[in-house]
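for the recovery benchmark. tokens below, seq after
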């Protein structure tokens, strides 16, 4: 969630000062960011407290967002993110070319045909899924286009974070306790940075039951021409109890190959 004030300014490309943010738009984006991070819908009173916004102003914003399909309101008066932002996530993927590159490259790797694979980008401290291809086995988590998870818990998020500097990772995590989805989730930024150092060296990231109990996930970064930081990451999710060490090694090699093929299609 953005912490910038509506009165913050940035240097313009040619010097001087860029225009100020429009307060109403900034408030709407703050609200949408908050709704996107919720694990369950929230009533107006909780939203007001969380965002430190008056109920009267918030009610007007929510009414508009619901009317535009950007938010939903239940019969109990609880609000959640609407379906329309999912369309935008898909549009971003199409326009950037990364989803087409992912789809084409995935078809060339038979090892992954039975597995659940995902394409994600970093959005603040979270990952946003741009493409998901389900596997033949049911998983504990239903990955979907437009879905979000804490980057610190997921293999795709860790793969992306491993291409950033430690200072940038700390900035993204915001100095807050890391969200924990299971008892295995990494608990501190210091521990996360140690993980990222290992993942950077080995070329892929691991989520060992950090997103969901019983799931073992592996992610690899995707690069584009002229970029030192990853533009996306691909990941594969396995059922830990039924995956042999040999199969795991095969899948790790395949997800790294997928990342390399997608990167090649993006000019890296």
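predicted aa per position
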């Amino acid at each position: 969630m953005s912490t910038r004030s509506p009165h913050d300014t940035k240097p313009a490309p040619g010097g001087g000062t860029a225009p100020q943010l429009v307060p109403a738009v900034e408030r709407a984006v703050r609200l949408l960011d908050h709704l996107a991070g919720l694990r369950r819908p929230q009533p107006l009173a909780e939203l007001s407290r969380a965002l430190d916004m008056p109920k009267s102003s918030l009610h007007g914003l929510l009414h508009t967002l619901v009317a535009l399909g950007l938010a939903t309101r239940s019969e109990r008066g609880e609000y959640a993110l609407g379906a329309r932002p999912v369309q935008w996530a898909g549009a971003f993927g199409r326009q950037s070319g990364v989803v087409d590159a992912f789809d084409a490259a995935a078809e060339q790797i038979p090892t992954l045909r039975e597995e659940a694979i995902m394409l994600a980008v970093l959005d603040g401290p979270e990952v946003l899924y741009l493409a998901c291809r389900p596997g033949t086995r049911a998983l504990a988590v239903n990955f979907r286009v437009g879905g979000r998870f804490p980057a610190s818990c997921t293999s795709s998020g860790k793969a992306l974070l491993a291409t950033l500097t430690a200072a940038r990772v700390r900035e993204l995590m915001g100095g807050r306790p890391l969200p924990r989805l299971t008892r295995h989730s990494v608990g501190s930024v210091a521990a996360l940075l140690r993980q990222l150092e290992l993942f950077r060296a080995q070329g892929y990231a691991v989520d060992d039951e950090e997103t969901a109990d019983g799931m073992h996930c592996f992610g690899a970064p995707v690069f584009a021409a002229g970029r030192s930081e990853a533009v996306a990451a691909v990941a594969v999710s396995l059922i830990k109890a039924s995956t042999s060490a040999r199969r795991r090694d095969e899948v790790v090699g395949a997800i790294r190959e997928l990342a390399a093929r997608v990167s090649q299609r993006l000019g890296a």
